[in-house]
Specification:
20 helices; alpha+beta; disordered N terminus; about 950 residues
């Protein structure tokens, strides 16, 4: 079952000499052509006067200043410090722009002032300004260069506590980027991260919730009438750092952005490779040795601080290939590196994506699991992205350029996509010392009060020795102090009940004692483990979560394996999960009881136009609950089309108590191993026995998108029907809540019309039953997770619709990093709907309803638009009505539905009866035939 990884698996940088350093000037993506005048753009133009961009280009020796303005009021721009003229911009459709070239860089302003003709004034620092910019003798602004990349995960300058001596970057010398290989006639790359947000700790000296970790999925499509998804024997895929000159981070207040800078201006990244890795903390998540006897090769994945997986700076955790493990009977694993590993802050060496999966087992040996068949994607699992970028900004949305190359190394196509990462998953809002900066004023001091009530010390950031030495930013010091406070409170409340490893009752006791006289506690205490034994605590070692179960082994318990004495459990290797409830259970269920701090979450109350009258209250409730631990108030990880439509966390997942009611609720040291699995089909509404499994039993698209105009669950029993969309278009087709009203466990709805639902789990895979396939009594097999589902032609759903929680187009400022990919692929934001993205022009002359979800060719130059749709309607009008709604070309009712909205501005004026259709306008027969 287990086989040693081959050299290719764990020495990726040595493959075929593919790593080359190619020097290019930064290539900026111009999108002005996408901002042409249209009905929709006029409808959404801003009436606020502001500077949206002020940037200097060394390459062009040019200053660009632009912004929004009141109509017919022009703008004058000057150097804010000296008053020197920059230029005057005309207000055209609520936008203005001033450009000026300079022959001497010393005259470039550090800060510009814009004055509108009505007297309104705005100022802004010039991003990427030269170091000798003209500030009238003042202090140059902080670095705000246009290149917002995350090309390395190592600290630099004096903050480099590991002593690796990396110099901090010169903000005037941005890292070179790979050239953009556009969506050309031959190939297309679609790429996305899998979750919409990943999290990593800012500090790992005391404890670690999640390591630096990302997952990149990509498919390479050869265009044509019947496009092909290419395999590794046809193409290779690489990723490198990319930037967006319109990155929203560049427009934010520098005081709130540069949170990765230390007192002396050095850049802090992470200390992950300095503490939990050499401390062996993450070794527990891997088998210590091959459990199969000879002649199977004997090898060790752990310790991670040594061969064959020497996890050092910029090297991600090894990720087992689950397809090989569960379908081919061998254990292989790979690591993915950061771009820039060869020379941090200076290089941007592309890294190859090492895995390609045809079928992806998803906990396929457990009752809730299955094999996600035919995913057919390249997967880079584990690149160690961190929350701070190369300028020290806390930028949760770094871009990577994903590039496909032929076997000969010729670039075929590329796309820029976000690999989001946040450090906001922290306990500081409640568990930090109230005297610490940034402590939530509306939160509680109860946790620290409880420590002080028994004279246990409460730690604050000022006591952090590295912060005292100026080697870490204040946010890192606050997390360090918070982690100590959390461990001490855990020891105080639960230490007497600590147990050793066990697989069945009774569990050997291993109590911890902690007191005023011994504030670090005995050897069994978590505080002692972190502060005395210098082994950072990882919560999931005891509290199971599928997120870190990379080999999909399920909850395990067993002593760490000792190769000297040949003792311990080589499979569990130090995990103690059998006697404890899951991480999701203990976090959500425990904190959910404090309703004064974590209030109940209200369902939406709609008015007649579809507006949500209590939305402000609901958003504040999310801030007080989900965003206290999940990223978060600053990051706003829920940012996609669902959020734009008013849906919040609880509309999909339920409240904290409902989320916490999982399969481990009966597990305890007195009742170890009582995991409630295999108690029937979870999705069957009649089955109340099987509780949810975190990460596995989740709502899907079909839970709200329950069908089309002709067949859906809207208006049914115990559902919340969406009255209208965010633009006021009548709906009454989709739901606003993914679970039925009154359901105590918020079980996701499974639709009978699967037009917009995820793939159903096949009953078997290669002749072996899929345990999660469900039964015929449900009316449909269980749905797969959205993030492992594929659709039209085998393209994975996230490739066209965006990542979970960040579905296209995102509710964010114009040209948000999340939207760059869809703009590059099809020329406008939103779901990938343009057939030309994968088919080229071959669909322009075809009449078909064989597109995704039964779609027809879209666009204003297609045969379908030019009369072909009428032929289809004559043969099967109901096929049209499924999305376009009631009536025909003679009916006044034929005005379209929310399922037939134009996804971009369309110009049909060259066609008979044609006209202009604005983005977001429903299309029905009467749109043209009026």
């Amino acid at each position: 079952m287990y086989h040693a990884p081959q050299p290719r698996d764990y020495y990726p940088d040595d493959q075929n000499g593919l790593i080359r350093r190619i020097i290019f000037m930064v290539i900026y993506l111009f999108v002005a052509s996408l901002l042409s005048l249209s009905l929709s753009s006029m409808a959404f133009a801003s009436d606020d006067f502001r500077i949206t961009r002020a940037s200097w280009s060394d390459f062009r020796d040019r200053l660009t200043v632009r912004g929004d303005c009141h109509d017919r009021l022009d703008v004058t721009v000057t150097n804010a410090d000296t008053g020197a003229s920059v230029g005057r911009g005309e207000c055209d459709d609520h936008e203005w722009r001033v450009r000026k070239s300079y022959s001497e860089t010393s005259s470039v302003p550090c800060t510009v002032r814009a004055v509108q003709d009505d007297g309104e004034v705005e100022e802004r620092s010039v991003s990427n300004a030269p170091s000798d910019c003209d500030d009238g003798g003042g202090t140059p602004p902080p670095p705000t260069g246009e290149v917002s990349i995350n090309s390395t995960s190592q600290s630099c300058g004096s903050a480099d506590i590991s002593g690796n001596g990396i110099a901090c970057p010169d903000p005037d010398a941005p890292v070179s980027e790979r050239p953009i290989v556009g969506n050309n006639a031959g190939h297309t790359v679609v790429a996305i991260n899998d979750l919409g947000m990943h999290c990593g700790d800012l500090d790992t000296r005391i404890s670690s919730i999640l390591p630096p970790f990302q997952v990149l999925l990509a498919q390479v499509i050869q265009k044509g009438s019947e496009p092909d998804i290419l395999s590794p024997n046809q193409v290779d895929v690489f990723y490198s750092a990319a930037s967006n000159p319109d990155d929203p981070i560049l427009n934010k207040d520098p005081d709130t952005v540069f949170r990765g800078l230390t007192a002396d201006g050095s850049i802090y990244k992470t200390n992950f490779w300095d503490y939990p890795i050499p401390g062996g903390t993450y070794d527990a998540f891997y088998p210590a040795f091959n459990p199969l006897p000879p002649p199977e090769p004997q090898f060790s994945i752990t310790p991670l601080a040594g061969p064959p997986f020497n996890i050092t700076y910029d090297v991600g955790l090894p990720v087992p290939n689950v397809e090989n493990l569960y379908l081919n009977g061998s254990l292989t694993a790979v690591t993915q590196n950061m771009p820039g590993i060869v020379s941090p802050y200076a290089a941007n060496d592309p890294q190859e994506v090492h895995e390609h999966l045809i079928d992806k087992p998803f906990f396929s040996t457990f009752p809730f699991g299955y094999v996600a068949n035919d995913v057919n994607w390249f997967e880079a699992a584990g690149p160690p992205f961190v929350a701070y970028d190369d300028a020290g900004r806390e930028n949760a949305y770094p871009l990577v350029r994903v590039e496909a190359r032929s076997e000969g190394g010729t670039p075929l196509a590329s796309v820029d996509t976000v690999l989001p990462i946040s450090g906001e998953a922290s306990c500081k809002n409640c568990h930090a010392d109230p005297m610490d900066p940034n402590f939530g004023a509306s939160r509680t001091s109860d946790p620290t009060d409880e420590l002080e009530s028994v004279n246990l010390p409460v730690v604050n950031s000022s006591q952090d020795p590295l912060f005292q030495a100026g080697q870490v930013p204040v946010d890192v010091a606050i997390e360090w102090a918070t982690d100590i406070n959390v461990l001490r409170l855990h020891d105080k409340k639960h230490g007497a009940d600590y147990v050793s490893y066990c697989g069945a009752a009774p569990c050997p006791p291993d109590p911890c004692t902690i007191s005023e006289a011994d504030p670090n506690g005995s050897a069994s205490c978590l505080t002692n483990l972190a502060l005395v034994q210098e082994k950072p605590v990882v919560c999931q070692v005891c509290h199971y979560t599928p997120a870190l179960d990379l080999a999909q082994l399920g909850p395990l318990a067993g002593a760490p394996y000792d190769p000297v004495t040949d003792t311990g459990d080589g499979l569990a290797n130090g995990r103690n999960q059998v006697a404890h409830q899951s991480n999701s259970r203990v976090m959500h269920n425990h904190h959910g009881q404090f309703t004064d701090l974590f209030p109940p979450l209200d369902p939406p109350v709609q008015d007649g136009s579809g507006g949500i009258s209590n939305q402000a209250t609901r958003v504040q409730q999310i801030e007080d609950t989900c965003y206290q631990c999940h990223p978060g108030t600053n990051v706003q990880c829920l940012r996609g089309a669902m959020f734009d439509g008013g849906m919040l966390c609880n509309d999909c997942h339920g409240d904290m108590k409902q989320v916490g009611a999982d399969f481990t609720q009966g597990v305890s040291p007195d009742n170890p191993g009582d995991f409630k699995l295999g108690l029937g089909n979870y999705y069957d509404p009649a089955n109340t026995d099987q509780p949810r499994v975190p990460w596995a039993n989740e709502p899907g698209c079909g839970s709200c998108h329950t069908g089309d105009y002709l067949d859906n669950l809207a208006g049914g029993q115990n559902v919340i029907t969406n009255v209208a969309d965010s633009m006021g278009n009548d709906d009454d087709i989709r739901l606003r809540q993914a679970w039925r009203i009154g359901d105590p466990v918020a079980k996701p709805i499974v639709p009978t019309n699967t037009r917009f639902a995820e793939n159903s789990i096949p009953a078997s895979f290669n002749g072996t039953p899929n345990p999660g396939a469900g039964t015929s009594s449900t009316g449909a097999d269980n749905p797969k997770l959205y993030r492992v589902s594929t659709g039209h032609g085998g393209v994975f759903c996230e490739g066209c619709h965006g990542a979970t929680h960040a579905e296209y187009d995102t509710d964010a400022p114009s040209l948000n990093n999340d939207d760059v990919a869809s703009i590059q692929l099809q020329g406008h934001t939103g779901t990938i709907v343009e057939c030309s993205t994968c088919h080229g022009n071959t669909m322009n002359s075809r009449n078909t309803l064989d597109g995704p979800h039964g779609m027809h060719p879209v666009g204003d130059n297609t045969e379908f638009a030019d009369g072909g749709h009428e032929d289809l309607a004559e043969d099967n009008l109901r096929a049209c009505q499924a999305c376009h709604g009631p009536g025909d070309r003679e009916s006044s009712q034929a005005v379209g539905t929310v399922l037939s909205l134009a996804k971009a501005d369309r110009d049909f004026r060259d066609l008979e009866d044609g006209g202009l259709v604005a983005k977001g306008e429903p299309i029905g027969c009467r749109t043209c035939h009026d």
